[in-house]
Amino acid sequence: MLKFFGMRIINLASGSDGNLTYLETDNIKLLVDIGLCCSEVVKRLALLNVCPEQIDAVLVSHEHSDHIKGADVFCSRYNKPIYAHYEVWKGLDEKLKKIPDSNKKMFEYESFLLKDLTIIPFSLPHDVPCFGFAFENNLKKVSILTDLGHTNNRILECVQGSQVVYIEANYDKEMLGKNEKYPLILKRRIAGKNGHLSNEDSACAIANLVYGGTRQVILSHLSRENNSPKTAFDTVVRELKKLGIVEGVHVRIDVATNLPGVIFKLV
């Protein structure tokens, strides 16, 4: 791949089956979550002409398996540091046993710098300690905002001003309600304040971000059982239109799937 100056980001997998995002600046190559097995991570990086040895660090949002499935093997095999909030590490230690202590890096609530990339972590309301991230480089900003039951002003302020935002649109309310495979207690957890964002709730959050200048949004972390790319896109576009926001005019909406998505370049 030709040398690119600036920041670029691509979601290599998203959803119930695993989450993996690659972010690069002039000086750092970073993975956000490793919810695929190590061999699959290597295959998907190869699509970018990136070798696993080139990865500088791994950033983990929380302990659920669809976000850390391949982290233990990848980070131990290639000797990579893995960063997580100290509250998240309480649940990770028993799951990531191959990683030496020297590669277990902790951050708190303050922003921190990895080479030329500023990382702004912010806690999310989920059923385990969980964090979203904003990334800043050369006055450009992108954010990843998944695995949360609701948004609030604090969260939206952390993401505000991002040119690109990956935001959860986990479930369709009707599909979840009619899902006979899920017991009532699980449905209540998903739809609860510490569960996941519905398509409608995602649209409401997106509207706030558009008012703040965001022009590219990627609907992410869709449920395999309770949503579909078309349903998520159509619902979000419909709800935004009710608020006077037209997709393709005021904001561009894409949908992340379990396959590699679009590379977004910020210069």
Task: Describe what you observe in this structure.
This protein has a 7-stranded mixed sheet. A 7-stranded mixed sheet has the order 7-8-9-10-11-12-13. The mean pLDDT is 96. It is globular, with a radius of gyration of 17 Å. The chain has 9 helices and 14 strands. Helix 8 packs across helix 9. A hairpin with a 2-residue loop joins strand 9 and strand 10. By secondary structure, the chain is of the alpha/beta class. It has a single domain, classed as Metallo-beta-lactamase, Chain A (4-Layer Sandwich).
Shape: globular
Q: Low-confidence parts, pLDDT < 50 over ≥5 residues? A: none
CATH superfamily membership:
Ribonuclease Z/Hydroxyacylglutathione hydrolase-like
Terminal residue distance:
17 Å
Task: Please tally the β strands and state the result.
Answer: 14
CATH topology: Metallo-beta-lactamase, Chain A
Individual helix count: 9
Which band does the percent of strand residues land in? 25-35%
Helix proportion of residues, in percent? Answer: 25-40%
Second rung of CATH, namely the architecture: 4-Layer Sandwich
CATH class label: Alpha Beta
Instruction: Work out the radius of gyration.
Output: 17 Å
Give the overall pLDDT as a whole number: 96
**How many distinct folded domains?**
1
Which strands sit side by side, in order, in the main sheet? 6-5-4-3-2-1-14
